[in-house]
Amino acid sequence: MEDLIRVPTAEDWIVLKQLHLTAEEWVRKWHETVNKEFERFPEGGYFVELNAPDLEHYSFSDELYLQAAKDGIAEKQETALRNLHLTENITRAFLDETLKSEKHAALRSNSPQIAVHRFKPRD
């Protein structure tokens, strides 16, 4: 999970300064917390990080695509659509695997765009 670390924004630096943490310290603590939480899940789980240009939390919806279309910015439209497809594909793979027991390669390998950390069920 450590491979996909984005560059902190100006707002991030303000928060980090208030917390008295470096970006590296915050990322390490954040990953430690996520690992502890996921290890507690009796059924196991997946932690997936997506990394693509201009990918953000709302990339899973069509909001960014529609805004770019409204603004008439073709490049942003293409990026938003690519990111929407990326999030849809990984979500579909997770749901198919979890609900239908269908194995998906997207959840089995890491790539520059997708990092998957699988937590096994507790004994």
Structure write-up:
By secondary structure, the protein is mainly alpha-helical. The protein has one domain. It has four helices and two strands, in the order ααβααβ. A two-stranded antiparallel sheet has the order 1-2. Helix 3 packs antiparallel against helix 4. The longest helix has 27 residues, at 74-100. It starts with 9 loop residues before the first helix and ends with a strand. The model has no long low-confidence stretch (mean pLDDT 85).
Short structural summary:
This protein is mainly alpha-helical.
Distance between the termini: 24 Å
Report the average pLDDT across residues. Answer: 85
| Helix/strand class | mainly alpha
Strand content: 5-15%
Instruction: Please list the strands of the largest sheet in the order they lie side by side.
Output: 1-2
